[in-house]
Protein 1
Amino acid sequence: MYKNKLLTTFTLAVYIFLLAPLVIITATAFGTDSYLRFPPKGFSLKWVQNIFEVEMFARTFVISIQIAVIGTLIALLIGIPAAYALSRYSFKGKGFVQGLFLSPVIVPGIVFGFSLLKFLIIRFEMDIIPSLLIGHTIVILPYIIRVISSSLENFDYSIEEAAISLGASGLKTFFIVILPNVTSGVIAAFILAFINSFNNVPISIFLSGPGVSTLPIQMMSYVEYYFDPTISALSVILMIMTAVLMFAIERTLGLSFFTK
Amino acid sequence: MALLNLEDIKVSYGKNTILEDLNLDIEKGELISLLGPSGCGKTTTLRVIGGFITPDAGQFKFDGKDYTNVDVHKRNFGFVFQSYALFPHLNVADNVAFGLKMRKESPEVIKSRVSEILEIVDLEEYANRYPKELSGGQRQRVALARALIIKPDLLLLDEPLSNLDAKLRVKMRVGIRKLQQEFKITTVYVTHDQEECFSISDKVAVMNKGVIEHLDTPQNIYDNPKTEFVAHFVGYENFLDLTLDRVNGEIQSMKTSNGLSFNVESNRTFDRSLIKGAVRPEDIEILGEDYENAQNVIKGTVGISTFLGKGYQYIVETELGDLVVNDGSNDRYNNGDQVNLFIPKEKIILV
């Protein structure tokens, strides 16, 4: 009993530590004062309304979504064949290739962002949007490869051989036998990569420029000049979006998919 | 001319040689089993035939044509996997229809062929079920139907029954044999189960370390194994070191290292001096004390005994080492009993 109580208290403390900031932000979003204040005084929705009045929020939101969707799709196009090759074939330098694909997770985001700035924008004078796209695609690729590799590893190789022995070519087998059986992995990889790209700061901060930015970067620069609860209100909306997304995953795939 | 020839097939991974100059001929319509312990190369041989492994050297000929480098999906061989390898996202009917769809058969042909084959394997009511909703035996039959529907020129089975329970295994192997004979399909069957393989095969190839040690009918392998390994594998558990003393017609008189004499009825001759005499545990008789010093008799002390159901198995310590004896009689011997073991001359196989 004693041990149980201790564990309960500890777990509770961890939850409070994790969730309290979110509760505070949510509360401050609906105050009437024009600065962040907790506990808030009164109740108003004017800060929520204000989000839509700051034109840059809407504009960067659209850019963020575009970058996240297109970047994730490109990463899937590269990541699925790469994951397949890595999980099915053994070849010289496989360890190196594997390391290369996973390295964006290991290299600090700031370092990676800075080198992209030096390379893409300064050296090749690339536009901001394609640079952002390239940066995000590279950063989310490891997640895609990881998730899809794990679902491919759970897929019995002899099922592919069965398809081939029945007369399907290798490429046909990939599309009509392998892909249909790893769809849940592909969806999970998509969502994970999407969230990662949407929330990314260290890469975007180096690659965004005047008038073209992503939402997290726009939020940061807003906080630099204004201290009103608009940012809290925006955070609440993003939290709700994420919660809805996670709920959808839980319903379709089950969250256990990520802990496997 | 045999339907299928493997000629000097060699397969190795790095320094590991899996198959060493393997030669095998298979006649049309025959069911041949590859039997051996794990790691003997039987599955590798099957996969070379199936085309999943390209041999480092040697040639695989099928129906007189060189098939060594023909792509798997162009071979028209049916393959049944140990794990069944059914397509999880397709129901039974679509699993079975897969091969016909790849051959671009018309929907009507596919429909009638699928229902025909499902009737043969007794799975008509399960056409709309998914693999995960089936029992092991049902999955196995789907796998078989899926391989048979393409009317394969050759059927390859890789330990198809090893995931089933003992009773079902016996039932299924009879079923496989029946289908094989009905369709007259040349079949290569890989297994490590001696009983299973003897019961359904026309011929058995016993493999060891990448080499076929004995290729013959099940009866001949059972009665007259060619090598010590084969003898061991088919149930000869006792091996006596013998040297030839003299030959008297069909009777060879043999001596053990400690001077005991054994008569052996065999016409096999060897060009080496040390020969092994292999004896099955059930062929050794336990005799009373009066038989001491008789021909083909060795005395010993009973050690561990285990109950086999129709009798007891004794480990008997003798001057020639421990001998395993299965005694079917009602007599019961205890640890420490002195016994005389009689080995009939026609029951000793020289290898």
Note: The longest strand of chain B covers residues 16-26.
Protein 2
Amino acid sequence: MLSPAITEALTAGAVTKRFGGLVAVDNMSFKLAEREVLGLIGPNGSGKTTMMNLISGALKPTSGEISVYGEAVTGRGASKVARKGIARTFQLVRMLPTMTALENVAAGGVFGHARRWGKELDDYAHALLERVGLPNAASAPVSALTYIDQKRVELARALASEPKILLLDEWLAGLNPTELKIGITLIERLRTEGCTIIIVEHVMHAIRSLCDRCIVMNSGAKIAEGTPAEVLADHGVIRAYLGDENA
Amino acid sequence: MKRFNLSATEGRGLAISVLLFAAAALVPLIADGYPLQIGISIVMYTALATSWLLFSGPTNYIALSTAAFFGIGMYTAAGGIDLVPYPVLIVAAGIAGAALAAVVGLATLRVSGVYFVIFSLGLAELVRQVMTWLQHVLGTMSGLYVTIERSEPMYYWQLLLLAAVIFLVGWRIGRSRLGFALRIIGNDELVAVHCGINTARAKVVLFIISSTFASIAGALVAPRWGYVEPVVAFSPFVSFQVVIMALLGGTHRLWGPLLGVIPFVLVWELIAVYFPNQTTLLLGVCFLLIVYVIPNGLLGLVEDTMNRRRRYEAGPAAAAALPIDISANVAAQPAVTADKK
């Protein structure tokens, strides 16, 4: 468990999101400590991405509170939440197709939490491309990049705002085994550098190696919380993933 | 991206632009009559199409509202010509256009795509109806006379100066954070929002700037028309022509529309002479041809050809340089990863 001395980066209190009659996120409460890597897992349709959209401000919760470092950001709108220091990647990679890789990265560093411009921005974006392993791709059109390289660019764009909290929505999905290794190494490095991260992921060995703690969702609600080893051995979790016979 | 220092290419571009404008300013000294009329058309449409591009180019929001603002400018000039000096009216026209754009922008720029296109088209019609109604209520004639003496060269120089200002503003925006924000919005609005951009504000600001210039253009040409009435001032023809010219030239560079305006105005003069009853039909055909045959405009064609020639001259190795560079980078990756471990 967390000791009280640890700073809370993010707090979600009884967050609920309804789409008409469907309850996509049901009374979710959790805390995220500074420098912690939290995994958000669960079967398809369990509300993980909706939860990410609520945190990043893309969606407004029906009820409940979300705060970042003690400051309420509930329903503030995505651009304001971004300025408070929450950066995200998207489930399906989203590039700015008419721009170069460097401009794609720079886009994250001008209007958000950290704001740079001119040569300073240029240098910073170059450094980020290097950090994610693309030192020579600066002037490449993003359409010429492979899938993993596009994902790297997207990660660098998120990092460009020097976020307090980084949201990675299935950032490892769709990668082949070699790329997956590269991807996991990259996130591991962010973790050692002290980033605070929430990961939504289906790749279980990535969850095991990357996350300090996991929250398991099913039908919008939290069904388990603990270390990856604990929750993955939990009967309720196995039932949610595999059905009753296997529990 | 670099803010303070002009790169060599930018400096050269600026020098060429200044020379071209200086050369264009000499036209009335050597041309008069019909050629000068065509020159006035060209600078007017250059101003309108380039101001249209300021907003619609980076955002990809096709605005069909040019006529609304152009007409507002004309009416401001026509309505106040007997009351205040003409230069004041030009400023007033800009303010009126900006105010209308602010109201319209705040109300509509939250909707995107086709809804915005339709609304922008409807706007000119709405303003036209309001003007017609106003004139009816006020008991004036169906139009207004704009009586002020201006020589043809004067119209030309005024519009040329406006076009120069629009280019300068557009160039400055292109180098600013606002310009970068709009390009991101045009690429992917969702990404823009999550990058921290206040997308509604960025769009409204640019829409206001763009519309202000269209209104000023209206005020500048109103005296030349002499008589302003709603049907003419708010003609949707103007909106469509401006869009077609800009698309014909190319919308990804500031000077793209200029490449479209010149041939279009010349061809249109011929069409107006030889097929005066089929202009609407031919405008539609032009639109289809441009969208299907040259989606990136003449500018796109020119740039493609230049790129191909440059690659050809540099030899096949250079032509394939980019893909090789990237694949080499990917191939080198596992080694880098191993180092990190």
Note: DSSP finds 18 helices and two strands in chain B.
